[in-house]
Every structure is written in C-alpha cells, then in structure tokens.
Write a structure and sequence with these properties.
Layout (H helix, E strand, L loop, with lengths): L4 H10 L18 E6 L6 E7 L3 E8 L4 E5 L11 E2 L10 E6 L5 E5 L1 E6 L2 E12 L4 E11 L3 E8 L1 H4 L6 E8 L2 E12 L2 E8 L5 E5 L4
Parallel strand pairs: 1-15, 12-14
Antiparallel strand pairs: 1-4, 2-3, 2-8, 5-7, 6-11, 7-10, 8-9, 9-10, 9-15, 10-13, 11-12, 13-14
C-alpha cells in the first residue's frame, strides 16, 4: 500500500466513531461472485483476481459506470493453496491465533483485486472511510472459501490488511458454510486506541477503490 496512505488511514481509524452498528448475520452470507462499483478512475476497464503463486484466477470487465461482476474461482483452481481455516485470515492480512470449530477445515482468502481503468492502475479494495464532523470510520469486505462449515474465533492483528504501521487488534467471530463466504472488516476506536472486528458479512454491491484513495 502507498506509504502516503499511512497517516491518513491511521488517523481515520484512530478517530473512528464507536456508534452502534447493525447486528451481523448468524452466518456469513454465501456468494459465487463479487459484484461492485469501481469509483477509482474513469471509463471502462477490468479487474483481475491474481494469486501470487498461481497467477490469474478470474477476470471481469468494468463498465463505463464502474459496475462489474467477477465470478469467484472454483476450488480446483486454488487447491494447491488451501490452508487450514484458522490460518486463512492471515492470508488476507489479519494475523493471529484463531480457533476453528472444525480443525480439519481448509480455506482460501481474497481481499484485493488488480484494477485497470483508464489511467488508473493498482490494487483495489471493497472499502471506504466515512468522515463526519467528529469521527471517522473504516469498513471493508473480504471473501473466504472454506471446504467445510466452521466457526472461527479469536484475536488477530489486521495492520497488514489495512496497510498502516500500527497494530489493529481485531476480534474474530465468523461462521462459514462450504463454499465462498463474505466477511465484514470494520475499524472503530478513539484517540487512546484502535480496535476492529472481523464478522459475518453480506454480499450487497460495494464501492471499490484503489488503496491510495482510501
């Protein structure tokens, strides 16, 4: 992530409002695709799901209005990269110790897409920073595949996901079903500390922007 983002996003999280949030669903919502709207750049383009080892796993065209739908890959495409379910959040930047209700469950995670749109290129995230008179907050999404239903719980540090040089302690309470599941990652806090949550998410379309625009 661009180092110029660090002070801005760190302040955004540090000043985040502690207002009440909607209750998370009982299980992470399942999906076979990612639908969103790119707000970075202009005109048509494309988004690509790349794996650092396996290469391109999926691609979708971005329409002139920024809309896209990317089909999530079948597990056969990333079977060599499956990891234990309690390690999967580490692959998307939330590192720590988790417990899985099914120790043998395997998983795979997605949080960024490679965007090309007009003159804009870079890694994009489904997330936004919201600013009000007295507060700021961050909310984003991630997608994890699990081969079995499992519940993940524990504590992680999401600073690699958010991309800033300070610890972002997060509590995890996620229940998945076999297949692709949507997670919600949100940050709240005050001037004395930063906290975050990783919880069950929903699949309604989200705004996508490059990391330097968060």
């Amino acid at each position: 992530m661009n180092k110029m983002l660090l002070p801005s996003l760190a302040l955004s999280l540090a000043l985040a409002s502690c207002s009440s949030a909607p209750t998370a669903p009982a299980t992470a919502e399942q999906t076979e695709s990612i639908t969103g709207t790119v707000v970075s750049g202009s005109g048509t383009g494309k988004v690509v799901l790349n794996d650092e080892t396996l290469g391109q796993l999926s691609e979708a065209q971005v329409a002139a209005d920024g809309g896209f739908t990317l089909l999530l890959p079948a597990p056969e495409k990333f079977s060599r990269r499956l990891m234990t379910a309690n390690e999967v959040l580490g692959s998307i930047g939330c590192v720590g110790t988790l417990q899985s209700s099914v120790p043998g469950a395997k998983g795979y995670g997605v949080v960024t897409l490679d965007l090309t749109r007009g003159t804009k290129q870079g890694k994009a995230l489904a997330g936004q920073v919201t600013t009000s008179v007295a507060s700021k907050s961050f909310e984003g999404r991630a997608w994890i595949y699990t081969d079995q239903a499992t519940t993940l719980s524990g504590a992680v540090d999401c600073q690699k996901l958010v991309g800033i040089g300070i610890a972002i302690p997060a509590t995890v309470n996620v229940t998945t079903q076999p297949g692709w599941n949507v997670l919600k990652v949100s940050g709240t806090g005050n001037l004395f500390g930063v906290n975050a949550r990783v919880e069950n998410g929903t699949k309604e379309p989200a705004a996508w922007r490059t990391l330097d625009e968060l």
